[in-house]
């Protein structure tokens, strides 16, 4: 089975959302079908079972990274850490701001979310400009963790995010690449 094609067949493209000219890649159909969801999760779990890539903890980026990250963490028998939008976490936090296409945003993590030296898998659903994943990486590093890899279902390389992330030395793993689509 060609996993890339199989998963791509279950990603819905919504034209002109949230703005005219945008081709939104909607992953919710991947989650709705139990067989497809299992195939998706298994791709990540099997990769991160390898001793050299095995994390101490999985960090998921708000909000779809929570869906993937918590299931992957459960399957790997490691902890899960949420990286949330500013103002959503109840305990002491550190924050990191980043630029969006039209403005800026801030994400936060609890100060006790990871330990110094923890090996962390950072996961989200999609890499576009890379700003959110880069902010998550910086947050984890502020707390002394090592981000061993950034992972996502979808890469939109034409938006430059995966290139920018790799340029910082962050290894990336994605399942579906929409280059030229």
TrEMBL record:
Any Gene Ontology biological process: AMP salvage
A Gene Ontology cellular-component term: cytoplasm
Main location: cytoplasm
Record key words, sorted: Cytoplasm, Glycosyltransferase, Purine salvage, Transferase
Function: Catalyzes a salvage reaction resulting in the formation of AMP, that is energically less costly than de novo synthesis.
Assembly with partners or alone: Homodimer.
Name recorded for this polypeptide: Adenine phosphoribosyltransferase
UniProt source species: Thiomonas delicata (Thiomonas cuprina)
Taxonomic classification: Bacteria, Pseudomonadati, Pseudomonadota, Betaproteobacteria, Burkholderiales
């Amino acid at each position: 089975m060609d996993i890339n094609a199989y998963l791509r067949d279950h990603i819905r493209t919504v034209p002109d959302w949230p703005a005219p000219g945008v081709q939104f890649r909607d992953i919710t159909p991947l989650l709705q079908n139990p067989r497809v969801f299992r195939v998706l999760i298994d791709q990540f779990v099997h990769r991160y079972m390898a001793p050299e890539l095995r994390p101490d903890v999985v960090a998921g980026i708000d909000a779809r990274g929570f869906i993937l990250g918590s299931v992957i963490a459960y399957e790997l028998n490691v902890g899960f850490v949420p990286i949330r939008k500013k103002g959503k976490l109840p305990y002491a936090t550190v924050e990191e701001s980043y630029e969006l296409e039209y403005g800026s945003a801030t994400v936060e993590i609890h100060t006790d979310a990871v330990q110094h030296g923890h090996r962390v898998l950072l996961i989200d659903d999609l890499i576009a400009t890379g700003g959110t994943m880069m902010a998550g990486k910086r947050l984890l590093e502020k707390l002394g963790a090592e981000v061993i890899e950034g992972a996502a279902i979808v890469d939109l390389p034409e938006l430059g995010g995966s290139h920018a992330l790799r340029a910082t030395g962050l290894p990336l793993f994605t399942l579906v690449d929409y280059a030229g689509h």
